[in-house]
């Protein structure tokens, strides 16, 4: 019994350390600069999750943003998400577009991730010019554009998930110029797969409707949306949820 108790203590300590590492690798909840305010929120189903967010400054004073969703849950997915962050940081050092970032990540991850896993992802380049953004997607749900009390789905070009197709191509898409106060919303599929007591999933249209609801000035879009998703699901999520908004700011 003493041996089992000690073993349990060691496992719990290792889990706490792994959780601390995962949290350390996430960017600050909110960052501002170069005409943008970027914030995110993350709610894993288990102690460790497979969703991942990263926000990095680019040499031209803009931003490179990653939102990724590793298949599965728990430790294996969390380890792959760490490798995803590493490959993202290496790729943005030399890549000149979101699509080339995804292609470089795909090539690198295919060398280190065991067969059977895949990663959906979006990379967003936010330029220091007011309201300019470019996006590329790898099997990821469409983003939303938010302005005032209106939200629209943006049907971006979508390549295959990472680790699925050899030498995959990820087309770039320039989003329309955003005005001050308008936002781009990225999310993982846990948000749209959240189901109520009747097993009705929220789906992208439901999330769009929630994102369009009026809110008080100064309210966080991502935190408010997470609360509304949890309310829909009676706080019983089936998958990790990550939400990220990039708001254009007056300069």
Map the helices and strands.
Layout: H1 2-25, E1 30-33, E2 36-43, E3 51-57, E4 63-70, H2 74-92, H3 98-112, E5 119-126, E6 133-138, E7 144-147, E8 150-153, E9 158-159, E10 173-175, E11 183-187, H4 189-192, H5 203-211, H6 221-232, E12 241-248
Parallel strand pairs: 6-9
Antiparallel strand pairs: 1-2, 2-12, 3-4, 4-5, 5-6, 6-10, 7-8, 7-11, 11-12
Helix pairs in contact: 2-3
Question: Could you walk me through the main structural features you see in this protein, from its secondary elements to its overall organization?
Answer:
With about 250 residues, the protein is an alpha+beta fold. Helices cover about 35% and strands about 25% of the residues. It has helices at about 1-25, 75-90, 100-110, 190, 205-210, 220-230; strands at about 30-35, 35-45, 50-55, 65-70, 120-125, 135-140, 145, 150-155, 160, 175, 185, 240-250. The strands form two sheets. The protein has a six-stranded antiparallel sheet. Helix 2 (about 75-90) packs across helix 3. The radius of gyration is 18 Å and the shape is globular. Residues about 10 and about 15-20 have low confidence and may be disordered.
Largest sheet: 6 strands, antiparallel
Order of helices and strands: HEEEEHHEEEEEEEHHHE
The stretches of 5 or more residues where confidence is low (pLDDT under 50) are 8-12, 14-22
Largest beta sheet: strand ordering = 1-2-12-11-7-8
Q: What is the molecular shape?
A: globular
Tell me the strand percentage band: 25-35%
Task: Please state the structural category.
Answer: alpha+beta
Distance between the termini: 64 Å
Number of strands: 12
- Helix percent band: 25-40%
What is the count of helical runs?
6
What average pLDDT do the residues reach? 86
Q: What value does the Rg take, in angstroms?
A: 18 Å
């Amino acid at each position: 019994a003493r041996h089992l108790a000690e073993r349990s203590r060691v496992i719990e300590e290792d889990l706490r350390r792994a959780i601390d590492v995962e949290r350390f690798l996430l960017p600050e909840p909110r960052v501002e600069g170069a005409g943008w305010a970027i914030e995110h929120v993350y709610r894993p189903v288990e102690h460790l999750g497979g969703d991942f967010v990263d926000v990095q400054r680019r040499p031209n004073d803009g931003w490179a943003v990653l939102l990724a969703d590793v298949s599965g849950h728990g430790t294996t997915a969390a380890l792959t998400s760490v490798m995803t962050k590493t490959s993202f940081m290496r790729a943005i050092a030399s890549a000149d577009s979101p699509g080339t970032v995804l292609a470089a990540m795909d090539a690198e991850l295919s060398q280190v991730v065991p067969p059977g896993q895949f990663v959906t992802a979006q990379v967003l380049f936010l330029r220091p010019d007011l309201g300019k953004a470019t996006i590329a997607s790898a099997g990821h749900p469409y983003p939303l554009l938010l302005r005032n009390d209106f939200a629209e789905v943006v049907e971006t070009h979508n390549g295959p998930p990472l680790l699925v197709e050899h030498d995959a191509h990820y087309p770039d898409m320039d989003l329309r110029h955003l005005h001050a106060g308008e936002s781009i919303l990225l999310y993982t599929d846990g948000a749209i797969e959240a189901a109520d007591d009747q097993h009705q999933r929220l789906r992208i249209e439901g999330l769009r409707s929630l994102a369009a609801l009026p809110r008080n000035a100064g309210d966080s879009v991502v935190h408010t949306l997470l609360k509304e998703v949890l309310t829909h699901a009676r706080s019983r999520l089936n998958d990790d949820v990550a939400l990220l908004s990039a708001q254009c700011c007056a300069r």
